[in-house]
Amino acid sequence: MENQKKTVIITGGGQVLLDNGRPGAIGYGIACAFAKAGWNIVITGRNKQKLYDAKASLEKEYDASVLCVPADIEYGQDNEKVVQTVIDQTIDQFKEIHGLVNCAQASASGVPFEQQTLEQFNLAIYSGLYATFFYMKAAYPYLKKTKGSIVNFGSGAALFGNAGQSSYAAAKEGIRGLSRVAATEWAKDGINVNIICPLAWTKQLEQFKTNYPEAYEKNVHMPPCGYYGDPMNDIGEACVTLMSDSLKYMTGETITLEGGLGQRP
Predict the structure, then answer these.
(1) Residues in Cβ contact with 220 at an 8 Å cutoff, skipping those fewer than 6 apart
(2) For 186-231, what is each residue's pLDDT tens digit?
(3) What is the pLDDT, as a whole number, of residue 1?
(4) Measured between alpha carbons, how far is 264 from 59 in angstroms, rounded to an integer?
(5) Most Cβ neighbours (<10 Å): which of 45, 66, 205, 211?
């Protein structure tokens, strides 16, 4: 039965494909990895068609049970209600929540600090930091019951202060701080919380290269391993592993999946 399988909520999980048909967005790649591993999948996002395309593909390719819930966290609306709707629909269909992956993030990357507008700053903070905050709070009672796991997404852009990414970096460092506090407070409940800072070849990275070539040249470099990560095989599989029973002792950690670029002291 469906409710005997583990269930994960993945924000920003709509389908985006590269020209070769491979996952072209990290959220969708993560959904593919969890579907392959036999989890029930709940995906959210602002683009309904991308969600429906993802649902159809995941069900066909992996025989997965998939719930898609259009949801967007933005300035000027009742965001707690939006998130609670996702949680309520998840419980109605799958009964329990075992994992939460906060991957959704929009930003005006490539815009210099002094040119960033309040609207652009709010876009990054609401879609990333506020979304992570609301989803973690709403999912907490259910993750406490299942002793579940959370994977949140930071960025090397924030760790290393990449030019042109001030609002994005602010959101990502806020997410890291939030995650570390939750890791400390929720450890007693059996919930582990970790952060991934990824580098993968995506449609978004392609667009960044086209729209902001100077910022791209400054910030994006070929990793020492000789290739850019794959959203499913390199990032998604890591998320699945982080939610396995064998890594419950790991919590509050920032993991750079950047093929050797993210080395830190």
Answers:
(1) 205, 208, 209
(2) 999 999 999 999 999 999 999 889 988 888 898 889 999 999 999 9
(3) 38
(4) 39
(5) 45
Domain residue limits at 197? 2-257
- 39 is a domain residue: yes
Residue 265, in any domain of the structure: no
Domain-located, residue 108:
yes
| pLDDT at residue 181 in the model | 98
Quick check: is 212 catalytic? no
What's the DSSP call for residue 228? Answer: P
Written as six digits, the tokens of 96 are: 């329990």
Q: At 238, which CATH number? A: 3.40.50.720
pLDDT at 219: 86
Catalytic residue among 126, 140, 142, 168: 168
Taking residue 160's Cβ as centre, other Cβ atoms within 10 Å add up to: 15
The answer to whether 53 and 25 have CB atoms below 8 angstroms apart is: no
- Mean pLDDT over 13-19 rounds to 96
Instruction: Answer whether 0.90 is exceeded by the pTM.
Output: yes
Burial letters for 208-246: b for 16+ Cβ neighbours within 10 Å, e otherwise? Answer: beeebeebbeebbeebeeeebbbbbbbbbbbbbebbeee
